[in-house]
Structure formats: C-alpha cells, structure tokens
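Key result, reporting period 2: structure in, sequence out.
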C-alpha cells in the first residue's frame, strides 16, 4: 500500500524485472518518502501466508539452481525470464 503520488513519482513497478519487482518498488518508495520526511513502515500485524505449491512442484535441485542464479547474478536473473523457470516455465 502506498500513496498514489509516490507510486507515480517512482514510475511504479519496474517493467523490465520479472521477479522481485515489489522489493525494487519498496526501495524506491522508501527513498521517495525519506526525501519528504515521511516514515516507511512494513506492516507485520497481518503477515501474508502463501501457498507451498512451488515447493511441491520442483525438486530440491531445481530450487537450489534457481537460488544459486539469484544469489550469484541477481540482476541478470531478475531481468531474464529464461533464468526464472520456477516462475515462468508453466508448470502447475
């Protein structure tokens, strides 16, 4: 959740990123707010609960390979759909 003027000023989500775009947006919004003396708050009272379906669909090796790519070449991995098979290979 953020102010609409903040979202517009930081140009919203990065359309070149295929993953972690919400983290990128959060960093930009935090900078935007700090420049204006506003507080950035992470809401923890009602944490998000997600489905474990990806863990069930992929082997440990596949998940480890994805994590390896993200850790050792994050920018390259986040900007290339082919390097993010867990999100984009269509397996359901």
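The corresponding designed sequence is given below.
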């Amino acid at each position: 959740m953020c102010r609409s003027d903040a979202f517009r000023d930081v140009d919203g989500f990065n359309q070149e990123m295929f993953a972690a775009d919400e983290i990128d947006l959060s960093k930009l919004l935090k900078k935007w707010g700090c420049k204006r003396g506003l507080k950035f708050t992470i809401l923890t009272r009602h944490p998000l609960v997600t489905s474990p379906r990806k863990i069930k669909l992929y082997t440990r090796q596949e998940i480890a390979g994805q994590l390896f790519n993200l850790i050792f070449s994050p920018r390259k991995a986040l900007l290339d759909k082919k390097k993010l098979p867990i999100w984009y290979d269509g397996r359901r």
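The chain has two domains: 1-46, 50-92. The chain has a mean pLDDT of 91. This case is discussed further under Risks and Mitigation.
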